[in-house]
Amino acid sequence: MKLWEQYAPELITDLYELTMAESYLREGMRGEATFSLFIRSYPADRSYFVSAGLDDLLQVLPDFRFSNESLRYLSSLGKFSSEFIEYLRHFRFTGSIRAIPEGRTFFIQEPILEVTAPIIEAQVIETLVINVIHVETMLASKAARVYGAASGKGLIDFGMRRAHGVDASVKAARSSYLAGFLGTSNLLAGKIYKIPVFGTMAHSYVASFSSELDSFHAFARAFPDNTVLLIDTYDTIAGAFKAVEVAKAMRERGNKLVGVRLDSGDLGNLSRKVRLILNDAGFPDVKIMASGNLDEYQVENLVKGGSEIDFFAVGTRMAVSADAPCLDIAYKLVEYEGRPILKLSIGKKSWIGKKQVCRFYGADGKMDFDRVCLLDSGRCDGEPLMELVMKEGRQARAPESLTEIRARFLDDWRKLPEQLKEIHPSQVYPVEVCESLRELDGEIAMLKRREEVEELEKCLIAKS
User: Fold this and answer.
1) What element of type H or E holds 329?
2) What's the whole-model pTM score?
C-alpha cells in the first residue's frame, strides 16, 4: 500500500475539476479528449528534467473510485446535482496514457505524458496527474544535479526531517535513488520501495555519555559490522583521534570501523586533516562522510576543492528542492473529438494534438537534439520517447522495479552532453517542432483568431 492511499485519491483534486465535469455532463459532452502535460520553462540554473512519478500514477488510476464517504462529502457542499453525484458513483478511468518512462531525461515544451479519455474522465484526474508527476520530477531533477556535482562520490538522502510532509519525504527518497543516490535514511521509503537504508548517530547520542570516547566504544559494541562515528560534537580533530582508538579496539576484536561523519565547520579542510589522521594511524579504508545543509553547489565546491570526502549525506535542500521548489508544469487540452485545440494565451501557448518526442544522437553517442512531432504523422526518424503505459484504464505493461528505472536514468545520464550537466549550464538543449506540427498549429491559430474577430463583430453589432 502506497503512503497516499490513506487519503481518498478521488478527492486529490481541485473543486473546479468537478464543476467543469458536471457542466460537461449536462451539455452531453462525453467525447474523447487528449490532455498534454509539459513544463513551459526552466527554473534558474536548470537545463534538463528527469521524469519521475509515473509508477505512482499508474498504480492509483485503475482503482480510482468515488467512495460513499467521498460522495456524501461532495453532496454536503450543495454545489452538485444528484444526477452528477450518481454519475460519480459509477466513475471509472477508462482512458489511455502515453508517457516518457521514468528515469529518462527530457526538456521544456516536451509532453511528459498525454492522457486520452472521455473528457470528463481526463478532466477529473488533472490535479492528481499534475501533483504526482510534478513533485517527483522536481525532486529527481534536483537529485540528478547533486549526482552530477558529486563526480562519482557516494550520495545518501538525509532529507526526511525537514521535507514538506511525510509523503514528500518518501517521494524525495524514491526520486533521489532513481537519480543515482545509493540510498536513504528514511525507513518508510526503504520499506515501501526497497531502497537501501543508511544511518549513523546524532550529537545527542554522543552528548548523553560521560565522554565522547565512551559513546564511540558503546556504538561500536552495539553495531560492530556497521560503525560510523559522528566526530564533530565537540572538536572534530580530537574526535578523529578518538575514532582511531576505537578503530584499533575494533580491529583487535576482528571488526573494522566503517567510517566517520563530519557535520559542521570547514568540511573540505577538516576532511583533509581527518584523512591524514586516519591514514597515519593505518586506517586508509575508513571512509569519510559529510553532511550539513549540503546541495549541489556545495558538493561541487567540495569535490573541486580537493576534499577527502567519500560520501555526501544530502538533506533539506534537496528534499525541498530549495533553489527551485516548483516547476511551471501545465496540463492542457490539445484535442477534443478529433478537433485540434489551441491555447493562445500570452506566455502560455500549448502545441496542438497528440504528439511524440523523437530523440537524435550525435556520432559520439551523446544527445544531439529532440523533435516534437504529431503522433498521427507517423514520422519519427529518431528514438521515440513516449510509450503507451495505460490502455482502457489498465496498465499496458508490467510494472517496473525502481532498479530498472535507476538503470535507465544512468544510461540517459551517460548520453547527456557534459555542458548540460554543469551546475550553471552553458547551453540550452535544442528542442525542435516538426514542420507539419508548426503548419497545422499556424492554421488553427489563424482560424481561431478569425473566429474571435467574427464573434467580436457580432457582439458590437448586437450592442449597437
Assistant:
1) strand 329-336
2) 0.93
